[in-house]
Structures are given as C-alpha cells and as structure tokens.
Amino acid sequence: MVTKELSDLSDEADLRRADSLAREIFSDVANKWALLIIEALGERTLRFSELRDEVEGISHKMLTQNLRMMERNGLAERKVHPTVPPRVDYTLTEPGRALRATVDLLCGWTHEYFGHIESARRRFGT
Amino acid sequence: MVTKELSDLSDEADLRRADSLAREIFSDVANKWALLIIEALGERTLRFSELRDEVEGISHKMLTQNLRMMERNGLAERKVHPTVPPRVDYTLTEPGRALRATVDLLCGWTHEYFGHIESARRRFGT
DNA sequence: CCGTATCCACCCAGATACTG
DNA sequence: CAGTATCTGGGTGGATACGG
C-alpha cells in the first residue's frame, strides 16, 4: 500500500474507511433486486433479456443499474458479443457464486419458515 | 384449511398467493436495516434505545418501523415493562435466530471478499 | 423512554424516447 | 437487443412535535 508512515493515525483512518466500505458493500448487496438477480443467475450465464424475463417484475432500468453495480463489485462478469443484434451475457464470478450460496440459504429460510410467518401474521392481525 | 372444494383452481390460486407472500417476506427481510437489526440483536435481548445506539445511523422511525415488521412476521418478540420510564425489550424468536444464521454468513462473505471487491472497483474505475 | 403522527424534501423507479 | 438520457409522480425516510 501507499503512504503508511504515521501508523497510529492512519490505522484509525484505515479502519474508518474499511468500515464505511463494508457498509457500502452491504447496502449494495442487501437489496431485493440484487439478491433476486443473483439467485436467477445461479450457475448459468444469461443474456440481458433472459434475466429480464427471469426476474419477475424488474424494470429495464433496475436491471441494468443492478448489473452495473454487480460488475463494479466484481460479482458478475459482462461479456459483449459484437453481433447484430447485440448480445450481452452475464455470469457470476467466484465471489458472486460465494454470495449466491448465502442467498440460497436465505431462500431456504423463507421456504422453511413460511408457515411460521403466515401464522405469526394472523396472530398479529395481518 | 377452509373452502377447498374445487381443487384444481384453488391449488393454482394457492400457489399464486404463496408466491406473492414469499416475495413479500423476501422484500421485508432483504433490506439493509432489517438485516443490521437482526445482526445487532444476535443472542441478546436489547431495549429500543440500546438498539438505536447499536445500529449506527438508523433513525427512530426506521427502527420502530422495522421492529414492527419483524414482530408481525414473528422474527422478534416485543416485551413491554410497564415501568416509568417505560422499557421495551426486543429478542429474536427461533425463526429470527435461524434467519440470523444466514445474515452471519452474509457478513462473513463481506469480510472474506472485501479485498476482491476493493480491487474489482479499482479495475472498474471506482 | 418509547411510540405515533404530521409534514416535507428528496430520491427513486417507471415510462418514454432515442442511439448503436 | 442492449444501453443511456430525461422527465415526472409517488413513495420514503428524516425532522419535529406531542402523547402515554
């Protein structure tokens, strides 16, 4: 790394930066569309339009926006085929696949506790 | 269950309802504040004000809002002590603790891939 | 201390239209 | 087909105030 002379002060600064970066990553990832896209991609590679069909209810805009975010964070790889009509494929990278494992767990949880939640809501009064 | 005579049609209807319910639960849970609150609660039981301090940056409003949601879905239990000043304790229920296990994994992921993400961003150009 | 209600500024997401 | 830009309404969350 660069410029690491005054260890005490810069260590604290590093911690703060790391913290804020961690929170930023968390915010990026902990949102419904991102997680649904990751789940949709799974092991496959899909084109933009296939993803659009796969992730029910997502708009063109939200899809591109989240795909950019995922590319930026190195979660997905974007491969452009210079054909006509154009074709763009998206695939999860290794970090993306690791993240998907946790998303799978979340989906599993939803399935497992579906009944609990339904009845909890009834007790609560919808 | 009630009113289940015409099996074919109501089965389809059930699937649709189950699906929309699943998506609703997913949306409830897949949001940054909910996940951070769950993580903050952990095994402990905390009062409202302690949670407020623990979950950095959350507003009074967002905290109550998410806690209500979690109570409604049976993820957390709310215990009011009729003292003065009032005191309200929150604890994760069993479903909530199960969910926390997946959140822990997500946090672990963030920590593990921190470096990957940082460098991916540099490659991308911030 | 905890909860709710009101107000309002801001952001976000959808719609639309246009490029390559 | 995929991506970008612009516009706009409605939702969202912060601030504030007040009640239990």
From TrEMBL, chains A, B:
Residues 18-118 form the HTH hxlR-type domain. PROSITE patterns: HTH_HXLR. Keywords: DNA-binding, Transcription, Transcription regulation. GO terms for molecular function: DNA binding. Pfam families: HxlR (PF01638). InterPro entries: HTH_HxlR, WH-like_DNA-bd_sf, WH_DNA-bd_sf. It comes from the Bacteria. This is DNA-binding HxlR family transcriptional regulator.
